[in-house]
Specification:
Elements lengths: L2 E5 L3 H12 L3 E5 L5 H19 L9 E3 L3 H5 L4 E4 L5 H14 L5 E4 L6 H5 L8 E6 L8 E5 L6 H13 L3 E4 L9 H17 L5 H16 L4 H8 L4 H9 L18 H15 L4 H22 L2 H13 L1
Parallel strand pairs: 1-2, 1-4, 2-3, 4-5, 5-6, 7-8
Antiparallel strand pairs: 6-7
Helix pairs in contact: 1-2, 2-12, 9-10, 12-13
The chain binds nicotinamide-adenine-dinucleotide.
Length: 321
């Protein structure tokens, strides 16, 4: 049985733990926070409830061990997933401790949203062992993961990382060159920056922006991405016509994408107040439960349509069952 060490078990680490466990891996979990074990159990409960509804042919769940010492957690592990807070000195120190105790042949993967693997490797004794495996929340349900090597990551680790990610039901995107924030978070940051401006300038509220996404282009994006959506928007002439029609708009003052609004106290309280009003008393757990139920319903629909992530899950079902 293959073994994974989960180092850092917050939102993301506990999601990774659930995904590996439900795919039959032994999980050795380490997080010094007293509340971590309870958070892990909550994540496992959610994953056990939902994952079998969208993934076919899951093996028997692997065993779970909670480890007090990081060194014990990484001992004998084939894959080590670091998901500690997004601060470079913390990550470098944790990676040094991991490499001091793990097998040199293990994959050492980081969940970092923004750091490049070369930054994580800067102080490392075995840089060739380190790769970024950046998932999306909830890790137990969403199949996509960005797999980012640096030029110092070995070819063998890259190949093993991709194969193992597929084995646990993920669709790894092998990112060719490292850049800060990889791919998805760069795209989302552009949108986030523009949304902050719209709120700061009093043009829109958090609820209005979310309505436009959830009732509009968000529905499109779950099944056609940016480029396929725009291809269709171009009519029968496709992308060529779309670029001819909307290309010039890029030089008009539609957006402020290159400027960052000052996230001062006034803007922060405006966003927080609007977001509180939007939540209307619903807790984060309730919103999370609603999100998971909706994601599962969407994934089932996409499976029935055999398209996008649904087509991926259908193919996976055939290879695993
Ligand atoms: N939240 C997201 O949507 C998201 C998505 C993808 C990637 N990420 C990345 O995943 C990583 C973790 O983010 P998160 O949202 O889970 O954060 P989080 O704050 O929920 O969890 C971090 C966990 O790390 C633990 N920790 C701190 N120091 C540690 C140490 N020395 N050893 C072991 N554990 C330690 C903390 O106790 C905490 O439980 C970050 O690098 C983040 O950029 C986050």
């Amino acid at each position: 049985m293959a073994t994974v060490a989960i180092i850092g078990g917050g939102v993301i680490g506990s999601g990774w733990a659930a995904r590996f466990l439900l795919n039959g891996w032994r999980v050795q979990f380490h997080d010094p926070a007293p509340a971590a074990e309870e958070a892990l159990q909550r994540s496992l409960d959610k994953a056990r409830r939902w994952v079998p509804e969208v993934y076919d042919g899951l093996p028997a769940e692997g065993p779970l061990e909670i480890m007090t010492r990081l060194e014990d957690a990484v001992a004998g592990a084939d894959w080590i997933q670091e998901s500690t807070p997004e601060r470079l000195p913390v990550k470098q120190a944790v990676l040094a401790a991991i490499q001091g105790a793990c097998s040199p042949s293990a994959v050492v993967a980081s969940s970092t949203s923004g750091f490049m693997p070369s930054e994580l490797q800067a102080e490392s004794v075995r840089p060739e062992q380190i790769v970024v495996a950046h998932p999306y929340n909830p890790v137990y349900l969403l199949p996509i993961v960005e797999c980012v090597p640096s030029v110092r990551t070995s070819a063998a680790i890259k190949a093993r990382a991709l194969a193992i990610l597929e084995q646990i039901g993920m669709k790894p995107v092998a990112v060719g060159a490292e850049v800060p924030a990889h791919i998805g978070d760069r795209l989302m940051e552009a949108l986030w920056r523009e949304a902050l401006w719209l709120i700061k300038d009093g043009v829109a509220t958090t609820a209005q922006i979310d309505d436009i996404m959830t009732h509009g282009f968000g529905l499109r994006w779950a099944q056609k991405g940016l480029f396929e959506t725009y291809r269709v928007a171009g009519g029968e002439a496709g992308m060529q016509h779309f670029l001819e029609q909307f290309g010039p708009c890029l030089s008009w003052p539609w957006t402020k994408l290159t400027d960052v609004p000052d996230l001062d106290d006034t803007l922060i309280s405006r966003i927080v107040d609007q977001s509180d009003a939007q939540a209307a008393g619903r807790s984060v757990s309730a919103l999370e439960a609603e999100r998971d139920a909706n994601l599962v319903a969407l994934l089932k629909t996409l499976r029935a349509q055999d398209t996008a992530a649904g087509a991926f899950l259908n193919r996976l079902g055939k290879t695993t069952s």
